[in-house]
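Q: Second attempt. The first request was missing the SMILES, so the protein and magnesium ion are both included now.
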Amino acid sequence: MAITKDDVLSWIRDYAQVIEENFEMLTDLDREIGDADHGANMRRGFKAVLEKLPSVEDKDIGAILKSVGMTLLSKVGGAAGPLYSTFFMKAGTTIGAKSEMAIDDWAKALEASTAGIAALGKAQPNDKTMLDALYPAVDALNTAIGNGSSNGEALQKSADAAHEGMLATIPLVARKGRASYLGERSAGHQDPGATSSYLLIKSAAETWADS
Ligand SMILES: Nc1ncnc2c1ncn2[C@@H]1O[C@H](COP(=O)(O)OP(=O)(O)O)[C@@H](O)[C@H]1O
Ligand SMILES: [Mg+2]
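A: Got both inputs this time. The predicted holo structure:
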């Protein structure tokens, strides 16, 4: 079974809806250790993505994801804009001009996208960033595929690992981004970017559960 272009479009639409439903929660998290704009940033970006989507929905998966990345770069400021832009651009270039992809293609894309965020933001694991949700998602996906799990199971394991990684940011002291200005006082709060990244992986798992 495969993940089709329509599945990818459904994922992007679903995530835009998830952001709409959770932007206040993301903003509240960012109020604790940042500047209370992460929800608004993501909401603005994915509103623009939804507006642009009809003009690219007849294109291949790579072109669609690259378009999402370019829209995010132009609409979302702060740290998260360029980082999420890189995520979608890398996913698009890794998958390329395909109208459907296998779970292995998604695993490679997720790995390349996560590496792209790490290269741009120069964060390490446990720096209390979105990478702390994404790295476990990559590892769990690869492990599940290696164990012969179904696509749906592998995607669910990936989302579960992202969830654990998100929760594991709570005790961490931030070493990158605005939250790092707080030093030790950043401990005890869940990272907003790890939260939006978990929601992204969860949305893929739910949208592609039957792929
Ligand atoms: N260098 C970095 N690498 C990876 N993620 C980062 C980095 N800096 C910040 N982030 C992520 O960005 C999130 C904050 O996003 P946002 O509030 O939209 O931007 P800003 O911090 O500029 O206000 C953080 O919670 C963190 O997960
Ligand atoms: Mg912020």
